[in-house]
Amino acid sequence: MKQTYVSQLQDHVGQEVTVRGWLYNSRIKGKIVFLLVRDGTGTVQSVVSQGEVAPPTWEAANQATQESSLSVTGTVRADARAPGGHELSVKGIEVHQLVTGEYPITPKEHGVDFLMRHRHLWLRSKRQHAILRVRATIVRAIRDYFDGLGFLLVDAPIFTPAACEGTTTLFEVGYFDEKAYLTQSGQLYMEAAAMAHGKVYCFGPTFRAEKSKTRRHLTEFWMVEPEVAYAELDDVMELAQGLVCRIVGDVLARHREDLAVLERDPAPLSRVVPPFPRISYDEAVRLLAEKGHVVEPGNDFGAPDETAISEHFDRPVLVHRYPAQVKAFYMKPDPADPTKALCVDMIAPEGYGEIVGGGQRADSLLYLEQRIAEHRLPKEAFEWYLDLRKYGSVPHGGFGLGVERTVAWICGIEHVRETIPFPRMLYKIYP
Amino acid sequence: MKQTYVSQLQDHVGQEVTVRGWLYNSRIKGKIVFLLVRDGTGTVQSVVSQGEVAPPTWEAANQATQESSLSVTGTVRADARAPGGHELSVKGIEVHQLVTGEYPITPKEHGVDFLMRHRHLWLRSKRQHAILRVRATIVRAIRDYFDGLGFLLVDAPIFTPAACEGTTTLFEVGYFDEKAYLTQSGQLYMEAAAMAHGKVYCFGPTFRAEKSKTRRHLTEFWMVEPEVAYAELDDVMELAQGLVCRIVGDVLARHREDLAVLERDPAPLSRVVPPFPRISYDEAVRLLAEKGHVVEPGNDFGAPDETAISEHFDRPVLVHRYPAQVKAFYMKPDPADPTKALCVDMIAPEGYGEIVGGGQRADSLLYLEQRIAEHRLPKEAFEWYLDLRKYGSVPHGGFGLGVERTVAWICGIEHVRETIPFPRMLYKIYP
Description:
The structure is a homodimer.
Chain A: E1 16-29, E2 32-38, E3 43-49, H1 55-63, E4 69-78, E5 86-97, H2 112-117, H3 119-122, H4 126-148, E6 152-153, E7 159-160, E8 172-175, E9 178-182, H5 187-197, E10 199-207, E11 220-229, H6 233-254, H7 256-261, H8 267-270, E12 278-280, H9 281-290, H10 303-311, E13 317-320, E14 333-334, E15 337-341, E16 343-347, E17 354-360, H11 365-374, H12 383-390, E18 396-402, H13 403-411
Helix pairs in contact in A: 4-6, 4-13
């Protein structure tokens, strides 16, 4: 029996098809049963009339419970009033498995803990469905953008021998008789790859063992990290701006309905076009002072500061040249003011926080050796990285964009835990 | 100073451009220096004539050492004899960093251990360059294939609370006050996602703590895992066949030159077209017996058996219905012979071993509960998985395709360690 997906029904009007899926909802109205059947590509109203079907089909229609699996055979009719624009006049029903007992997720309000423990079922709900569809488009947009610009995908390793930025937030793994750490960033590896391939990116899961329970933190999250040989800070900002415009553009082009399900106003997203404002850290500090936010000189911004900055602009803002002391050892100092780093953060609009961090990397061997010593990092673990400055060092830079925060911003959702299929948080790894 | 990539030179014949890269090789011939400059997109011969450049440029050309970073400005000339079809008549050279001391990787033969310790530099060599380019196209082909068929990308988690197939080959991670394991497969999660979205796939790193040092094993490798609701074994075989044809087709269309660098004969790849032979395990056992390979009844095949099977066919072969006892607990038994599982392995040609494993999943709650008990797996860890059989269970199936073995086969290389940018093996996680 050939299967027709709900998303294909428009091509089968007047024909008899079989839709295979699950019962989302049903309504009995005298001698008619309306079955709302979902199959992953959409939902179709399937109309069962007692007078037009055999008694076992009528019985099946009446007994089917929420999330029971079933195949429904019937004729496709265009009907503007029906959800999705089509409905099925049912001839036959095959129930694969009848759900007995109550389906755990009912239309009533459930607590988040309950929903998270039932994430494997929660995925079936309309809202989660919409979020993961947008997420998949965002991932695709990222890959299309870099592949289209001639970047080479170079997968970074997950097991690493040492930390990029200290060991306090690293997950340690027993690696046979040794120890390994789960990667926090593929950047150092991408620097090596950029020296081989010019323009590269990695895109995979990264890990942070942070004991923080905030709405912006996951222990496992996906990050894309491009790295470009011969790129300087302005090139990095241009590249990041182009990426974010591509992502937002693709979502707006394909997911108006999903954004409506999420009650996400698309108007602020429509304003995400180049050029994004670019302000220095010092300018941002002055802006914050005007809004009554005091930033101690030389300190990084906190989440409330980022929110205040974002509220001042109608699109993402690029904040560059932070104090070198709050940034990682590999940042290149600004020749015009060596207390500042040639770095940039992109802060999303509407208070969604930092979604991009990057900059130009130090290309001097001597400077990097000094910084590694100052940060008390184990030099032997970085020998290979220093080789990149001994053998053909070039100006270069790149950034990382976090997928989950980007999804949260674009979908307009409060907490990143809904932006990834199976979120991992402090004390939370089931299912 | 605008940068022109070597791959773009054809559009700039007769124009002055600046190529930024590294010195791959140089040759001095009296009053002419030939600099072979690579920039990641290609290599261009840059001709420096003493009579046509200022003395500092002439000096720079003579002093530049292997892998020194430099920008070369000159006029593009079409020259059929030049590698790549174009060369530069140089006017100026800017050396960014002069490599002093010998570059570690010289044209002489190095041992594999040495090369692996210098993987960050080894990536720059022609052969490694070609392999990673083919790998990127394979990854892209996989995503294009599934996205084109309407599959939704659903990222599986890396941290898992329990093992899919026992804990002996799992990496354990300290997860705050608990333990977690690194995923061996996203399949169980994809089964949950398929019940929500119909057709899904995950594509990410997976981990096996195997103490084996073979040419086919890595501790960290990438796997794509599609899962389809309402799919049966034949559908799974069809899907896997289509994927492998798409991958091989895309590589042949775009990488003839890279395959030539790898001395990979493309002829056997051209024969990878549908239909692939499909034989049962029992037929494979008989085939092996004819070739003098004795397989104990009910046992799995070893690598030499797979090689012998592959040599019998001119394209990948699908071997289905292995003994249930050698397969995982979630496999659906064949109704025609319950001692066999409705599973399939795809064995690559030319002795490259299994590249796909999959099949139809058990959809009966009772059967799965029995199998989990028989395998002495912790039932509480699988409660969520059993929920999928309580709430709308459907026939479904999928498979996993290992990226590194696929790259090894298509590139025709002996050992999987060269198929991933930064390979992780037993006692080997640096750089």
